[in-house]
Amino acid sequence: MRPSCTSADRITDFNSSQADRIRLSRTAFGISATTASISSVSSADAVNAALLSSVLFVYNTTSGELIWNQDGATPGAGSGGLLAVLDNKAPLAAGQFTLY
């Protein structure tokens, strides 16, 4: 799965040690979960495998691509897809997301 980069946000200087967070509206994205879940992977095959899981986000640490896995365990990202690209490929953890 390789979603289009045309509508993805670019994050140039994400830094968790500076308390940076990614904030997403649960209503706007149709997310019922109150906390984020993320799978960090390092290859395209691993991205595809992670998109078969129920995690909300898949982060490719090699490319910096952050994918919203809208449909959970159904193959692909459903109506989700590439949400953002972290240019600096900073490490991401579930605690760095705020779902409001």
Mean pLDDT: 87
The side-by-side strand order for the widest beta sheet comes to 1-6-5-4-3
- Give the total of beta strands: 7
Q: Strand-residue fraction?
A: 25-35%
The total domain count is 1
Q: For the record, give the distance between the C-alpha atoms at the N and C termini, rounded to a whole number.
A: 28 Å
Molecular structure report:
By secondary structure, this protein is of the alpha/beta class. The chain has one domain. The protein is 11% helix and 27% strand. The chain contains 2 helices and 7 strands, in the order ββαβαββββ. Strand 4 and strand 5 form a beta hairpin. The longest helix has 7 residues. It is globular.
Short description:
With 100 residues, this protein is α/β, with parallel strands linked by helices. The protein is built from 2 helices and 7 strands. It starts with 8 loop residues before the first strand and ends with a strand.
List the keywords.
single chain, 100 residues, alpha/beta, five-stranded mixed sheet, two-stranded parallel sheet, 11% helix, 27% strand, globular
Task: Give the SSE map.
Layout lengths: L8 E3 L10 E3 L1 H4 L8 E4 L2 H7 L6 E4 L4 E4 L12 E6 L10 E3 L1
Parallel strand pairs: 1-6, 2-7, 3-4
Antiparallel strand pairs: 4-5, 5-6
